[in-house]
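Tutorial, part two.
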Amino acid sequence: MAADPTDTKKLLDRLSRVEGQVRALRRMLESDRACEDVLTQLLAARSGLERAGMIILEQHVDDCILKDSAISIPARDELLQTLRLWSKHGG
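Running the prediction step on this input gives:
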C-alpha cells in the first residue's frame, strides 16, 4: 500500500488507539467492570477499526481503482461520501 506519509501516520495513530482500547477491554473484563462500561469501550474499539478500514478503503479507491481514471473530482468525492455513508450505517 503506497500511501501518503500523512495518511499512514493517521492510520497508525488510529490503530494505536484501538490497541489501547483493546488492552483496556481486557483489564475491564479481568476486574469485572460493569457490562455497560465494557460495551462502551467495545463500541469505541469497533468504531476505531471501522474508521481505519475507511482510510484504507479511500486509499484503495484513489490509488488502485481510480488511479488512471478520467473520473471528475466531484464524482470521486461523491463515491467516497457514499462509501462513508455505507460504512457508517452498515455495521
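The chain has three helices and no strands. In part three we will examine how such features are distributed along the chain.
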